[in-house]
Design a protein that fits this description.
16 helices; 14 strands; 46% helix; binds nickel (II) ion; binds D-xylose
């Protein structure tokens, strides 16, 4: 059965093509810096936005027109939706997808019923994965939508909510494992607070630490080899989320001795909300050897919320790919489009336009980043900027052979700091633009 009857497999036609349903830059088999684009980018389609988002906003109901979906919360509808999803992903040519448990299957009247629903849909997911070769980049548990999680899940004041969340995460990890998922994400959801007047922050953080340790323990128990990730976001829906930004997540992981067990899944619009550039978040994660995957999207600078738009800025994707190439490429992670079409873009074909645009923009970013690296001038500039640390006093300091006393002696003898050199910001910005 064809759910997108008018759309054929999206092909690479090159930058001169005027066909909107073709790739202008993403040529999956083209080799860039030693790997194919497909291997570098590991594109992933998200189930929640692409197949479940009704495109509502705080001022109006959903507008999405999805003719394959009868709008019911039945298992049958959920199973049918899987076929539409896989036809879409297959026609698009993305190798991966990602989901929350409750995106793919409806919540039942009890935990047992929900688990049963999930199993029933997972069976169809598995069959479709086999048929198409599309793989699961990561799974996750929706621990924020149901009213039981109104105060949070792992950080709820209600211990029963914590227990329910643990049971739900357990099942979601198991299903992810059965589907050969390459990772599992913990995004804070409602793990944060709306007011400190009613919050015991220390206790909530301790609970979150305990929750993740139990997840790690269960992962080992069932032999799940996928990567665990934590996804930073500073606010929304709470006013303060505990997993605020990359640095806060790393601090949390270190404090609770979880560093070896989780890497970061960084989302562009979350970086923006945290008052950082994505480039900043990437650098923080890479420096800690903790970058795992990215949720590729972008915000609207005129709107202060998580608008989850598809990335269209080549400048942004160049920054992302410079970071990814610098860390040696994705291992288990990928470019996961945690992005949705606008409320006005309500037709099925808009889903194609959105993803094609995101994929082409990332393909360009990859090629530009690879060219900047091959050129070498940028890296050479940075290397040279720190040359005072390669020999003499700098080398001594770096190797831990100095003290305040010996540095005082050094400076008393030398008298003044060697003349500083320009940071050449504008020169470097022009250099980057040479490649864009
Ligand atoms: C929400 C998050 C969410 C996670 C998965 O803002 O981005 O979609 O990626 O739970
Ligand atoms: Ni996300
Ligand atoms: Ni988000």
């Amino acid at each position: 059965m064809a759910f997108f009857p008018k759309i054929k497999k999206i092909k690479y036609e090159g930058p001169d093509s005027k066909n909107p349903l073709s790739f202008k830059w993403y040529n999956e088999d083209e080799v860039v810096a030693g790997k194919t684009m497909k291997e570098h980018l590991r594109f992933s389609v998200v189930y929640w936005h692409t197949f479940r988002n009704p495109l509502s906003d705080p001022f109006g109901v959903g507008t999405a027109f999805r003719p394959w979906d009868d709008g019911s919360e039945s298992v049958k509808n959920a199973q049918k939706r899987v076929h539409a999803a896989f036809e879409f992903i297959e026609k698009l040519g993305a190798p991966y997808y990602a989901f929350h448990d409750r995106d793919v299957a409806p919540e039942g009247k009890s935990l047992a019923a929900s688990n049963k629903n999930l199993d029933a849909v997972a069976k169809v997911l598995k069959a479709e994965q086999r048929r198409t070769g599309i793989k699961l980049l990561w799974g996750t548990a929706c621990l924020f939508a149901n009213p039981r999680y109104m105060h949070g899940a792992a950080t709820s004041c209600n211990a029963d909510a914590f227990a329910y969340a643990a049971a739900q995460a357990k099942k979601a990890i198991e299903v992810t494992h059965q589907l050969g998922g390459e990772g599992f994400v913990f995004w804070g959801g409602r793990e944060g607070y709306s007011t400190l007047w009613n919050t015991d922050m220390k206790r909530e953080l301790d609970h979150l630490g305990a929750f993740l340790h139990m997840a790690v323990e269960h992962k080992k128990k069932i032999g799940f080899k996928g990567q665990f990730y934590i996804e930073p976001k500073p606010m929304e829906p709470t006013k303060h989320q505990y997993d605020s930004d990359a640095a806060a997540c790393l601090n949390f992981l270190r404090q609770y001795k979880l560093m070896g067990h989780l890497k970061l899944n960084l989302e562009t619009n979350h970086a923006t909300l945290a008052g950082h550039e994505m480039q900043h978040e990437l650098e923080v994660a890479i420096a800690a050897n903790a970058l795992g995957s990215i949720d590729a999207n972008t915000g609207d600078p005129m709107l202060g919320w998580d608008t989850d738009q598809f990335p269209t800025s080549v400048y942004l994707t160049t920054e992302c790919m410079l970071g990814i190439l610098k860390m040696g490429g994705f291992k288990t992670g990928g470019v996961n489009f945690d992005a949705k079409v606008r409320r006005e873009s309500y037709e099925p074909v808009d889903l194609f336009h959105a993803h094609i645009g995101g994929m082409d923009t990332f393909a360009r970013g990859l090629k530009i980043a690879a060219a900047i690296r091959a050129d070498g001038r940028l890296a050479e500039f940075v290397r040279n900027r720190y040359r005072s640390w390669d020999a003499g006093i700098g080398k001594k300091i770096e190797s831990g052979k100095t003290s305040f006393k010996t540095l005082e002696t050094y400076m008393l003898k030398k008298g003044e700091v060697t003349k500083n050199e320009s940071g050449r910001q504008e020169f470097l910005e022009n250099l980057i633009n040479e490649f864009i």
